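Hi U.,

Before I forget, here's the chain from the pilot set. I'm dumping it here mostly so it's searchable later in email.
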Amino acid sequence: MLTSNKQPSKTPRPRVPRPATLIIALIVAVGAMFFAKKCSHSAESPFTSSLPAKSGGDTLDIAIEISPLSYSLAGDTVCGLDYDILREMASIHRRPVKFHPFAPMDYAVRGLDEGNFDLLVSSLPSTAALKNRFALTDQVYLDREILVQQRDAAKKITEAHALAGDTVWIAAGSPLAGRIRNLAAEIGDTIHIIQNHPYTSEHLVMLVAAGEIPRAVVNEGLALSMAATDTRLDVTTPVSFTQFQTWALRKDNTALRDTINGWLKSFQATDRYNKLTQRYLSAD
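Structure:
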């Protein structure tokens, strides 16, 4: 059964329209523009912003980020690498699941902590900090962080160390903040981080393309997918090494984590897994 129900004091603010209007427009545009050709099945219920009641029984409640790489709506279809992997594994193991699309990360984390969700699916690299906070699954696929900027930017950054003293935008609540701080420590200089609630990674990429903000850091899979359809974007500068991408559960939910790890190990040995990662993680 499948359903989908600080800013630094001297850093300039991005020129952005009113949040409520822009969020609606961006969510629709993201799904329609970037992943329509990769979707193959119907959406069964719309996104809701309120925490849902637990489904009960053996149904898995999954908070999944609204993102071209994780969960994307295009008309009456829904797709995404994480969504497709989970949907197919649940079907194989006859486990009912209910998807709860979200945008702000704090919504999903709160729902996970309070028991509304069993699993949090987002761009989560397997880091020591996240392992201390959550029970993380084994790697789902490989990804890394990429700097997104305009191809014709007046100040073009071609290597991560050139961010010294500069500013990057990341999604509100994103674990990528840890990587940026580590990079700043490596180069011995400050990198200012702006997290504009409630914008997610794909919203920030679209703002970069439109010239509203100069640069953002997002996962490579997302960056390549969006750059493939927007020639204004440059996504050639990595800011991290390749990392394992994982899913998160409550720290005490190790039994479910072990079950999902078993599903992943079996599914990743199939040709279907290889086809899905090729479809979503390639630049085409």
